[in-house]
Amino acid sequence: MVRFNLRARATIVTALFGALFAPATQAADFPAIEPPPVEEGPVEWGSNWYLRGDFGIAETHPTDLNGVALANRFPNNWSIGLGGGYKFNNWLRGDVTVEYLNLYAKSGVRTDIILPCEIGLYLDATQPTGVSSIPSACSPWIRNRTESMLNMANAYLDLGNWWGITPYVGAGVGVNVLYQRAANNWYMYNGVPYAGVTYTDPRNGATYMANWDTKYESTSLRLAYAFMGGVSYDIDNHWKIDVGYRWANLGSISGINRYNQPITTNLIQQSVRMGFRYMID
């Protein structure tokens, strides 16, 4: 009986020790490994993006349209624009720009334009037609506002950086939103409107009315393209100053010339532009 009790006690003690030390043994054999915490840093918007702003002085042709006479020399016009782009590598970059162009703007009398106008007819046997005109002199009173919003996608080839100076060439294509609002009203030398002057042909009694007045009002889209070249200078790691030349075909434009003849021609602009580029880090 005593041996039985001793054996029973030994068995119970052994079981208790096994129960106590088994988890510790398993934990020692298979330690739990937790991954280190991951620290999340700020997310950066790529460092090759840039913003740009430009102001330009330009020479625009035709120089005489719908009563407005621009100086036939450089400059006779101006523009201002904003844009943004991306630098792909040290040689290639591209941007999208939007520019406002103030093309033709004037209101008033063109005293430098005096054209002979006809206010009547009389019988004249010395003329092959048998009649001669009764002349007067007419000048236009004009209202003209012609402007555009030039939207361009441009690509540039940078030709290396030399002590902070980077020459480049480029080309662009886009859409020119052309807005025209113009009216030409002609007056005789005595201040009477030419429109509404009536006269009778003495040969057949037919009545005619003289009217040179014209009016244009439209908003149209024109295909535009340009070629440019220039240099930029690194002010610091972020700022660059840019000076360049651009030749641009802004699409076709219609109106009348100084001789009151209708014309349709391409709107050509040569400009020198200066601006800044800001590289975003």
From TrEMBL:
The keyword Membrane does not apply. The keyword Signal applies. The lineage of its organism: Bacteria, Pseudomonadati, Pseudomonadota, Alphaproteobacteria, Hyphomicrobiales. InterPro entries: Beta-barrel_OMP (IPR027385), OMP/PagP_B-barrel (IPR011250). It comes from the Bacteria. Keywords: Signal. Residues 1-27 form the signal peptide. Residues 17-269 form the Outer membrane protein beta-barrel domain. It comes from Methylocystis parvus. This is Porin family protein.
